[in-house]
Design a protein that fits this description.
Structural class: alpha/beta
Strand content: 5-15%
Distance between the termini: 30 Å
Number of helices: 15
Length: about 400
């Protein structure tokens, strides 16, 4: 493994990461590492990834560089192994066994680079009865009990986009695991495999809830608990203009201020009286319907009532607090969340826009010292972007990512 480091910015400056292109949680995990300053080289497949959006707008590929390699060609695996030999981390999101069949599995990579941290991202994990089955965020959440917790008691479970499974239970756990394994590798000289499964991460996220369930402080049904909308002072309410306010007035002092500003001081005693929760909910709901969202926002402005307007994706970047913090940023004409978290000595930035497939081959070959990366890339030009074709491929491609 070369001792040369790739310059960069952020606390992970100098860390080299190879990302085998896929969809969902693995690319997002690689984006997090790239945001933190790692030199992330995304190995795109000819024709692009399944379910891909237009590469120009795929911000999960920001701060990365891209090369195109066809792993099914004779020299494809060797080119990836050349990258792995010079890397600190490799991330892949294939179904179990696919990387091995392609010749870029953990054994192949560790034979070239024993210190490599090999991160594997799947929904079901590397082993178990469902390991080789296809799946997506919603199915993983369903089996963990997490999906069943979310939603109104008289309706179906709510679908939390792909944030809770793919990204919270998947990407974040992969990144934590990879960084821990990287620390171990640098201390011992020995790499290892990180098996990050969305079912494991999503289950782990509910650790506190399982403790409350065991203690009798949580009912195993939707909309019946303190934090799942069952509590009338922790939930959302419609306003006169069809928008919503979010209420989280859990503590006594916040609850009192909430009722005062709402104009319902007579319900002070209902906070701990579950027999009055129905009455309280009706009163709060009726009261919120008397004004618009923006009017209620003005009422609660500057208070500790723990009430906030429910904003849309396009509204959020313009909120005064988020604007003041720079929570969102504009880069290349795309408004997007800024890198997080924040560091006092090694600040993070969006350095480059979404990596375009194959656009960085020459630069990576030079910086990583792999001349044949250029020579072998001539026949790997990406095919035109085609979403329908990618969608059709998902169900039949055994090499499709399982995230």
């Amino acid at each position: 493994m070369t001792t040369a480091r790739t310059p960069g910015h952020g606390p992970l400056a100098g860390v080299r990461v190879v990302e085998l292109a896929g969809i969902g949680p693995a690319p997002f995990a690689a984006m997090l590492l790239a945001d933190l300053g790692a030199d992330v080289v995304r190995v795109d497949r000819p024709g692009g990834a399944v379910l891909a959006i237009d590469p120009e707008y795929d911000v999960t590929n920001r701060n990365k560089r891209s090369v195109v390699v066809d792993l099914k060609c004779a020299d494809g695996p060797a080119r990836v192994l050349d990258l792995a030999e010079r890397a600190d981390v490799l991330l892949e999101g294939y179904r179990p066994g696919v990387a091995e069949r392609l010749g870029v599995g953990p054994e192949d990579c560790h034979a070239r680079n024993p210190q490599l941290v090999y991160g594997r991202m799947t929904g079901w994990g590397q082993e178990g009865p469902l390991a080789h089955r296809a799946g997506h965020d919603i199915a993983y959440l369903a089996l963990t009990g997490t999906l069943g917790m979310i939603g109104a008691p008289d309706g179906p479970p709510a679908v939390p986009a792909n944030l809770l499974g793919d990204y919270a239970g998947g990407s974040l756990y992969l990144v934590v695991g990879v960084l821990a394994a990287l620390h171990h590798a640098r201390a011992t000289g020995t790499g290892q495999v990180v098996d990050a499964a969305i079912v494991d991460g999503a289950s782990h996220l509910a650790a506190m809830i399982h403790g409350m369930l065991a203690a009798g402080g949580w009912q195993d049904r939707r909309g019946a608990n303190l934090l799942d909308g069952g509590c009338p002072y922790y939930g959302t309410y419609e306003t006169a203009d069809g928008r919503y306010m979010a209420v989280g007035a859990l503590e006594p002092q916040f609850y009192e201020e909430f009722l005062d500003l709402l104009g319902l001081p007579e319900h002070t005693g209902a906070r701990k009286d579950l027999t009055r929760w129905g009455e309280l909910r009706q009163a709060v709901s009726a009261r919120f319907l008397t004004r618009t969202r923006d009017e209620w926002t003005a009422v609660f402005e500057g208070s500790d009532a723990c009430v906030a307007p429910v904003l849309s994706l396009r509204e959020a970047p313009h909120h005064p607090h988020l604007a003041a913090r720079g929570t969102f940023t504009d880069h290349g004409g795309i408004t997007q969340p800024a890198p997080a978290p924040r560091f006092s000595a090694t600040p993070l930035t969006v350095r480059t826009g979404p990596a375009q497939p194959g656009a960085d081959t020459e630069a990576v070959a030079r910086d990583w010292g792999i001349p044949r990366l250029i020579k072998s890339a001539e026949g790997d030009a990406p095919a035109p972007y085609d979403v329908p074709a990618a969608d059709r491929a998902l169900a039949t491609d055994s090499d499709a990512p399982a995230g």
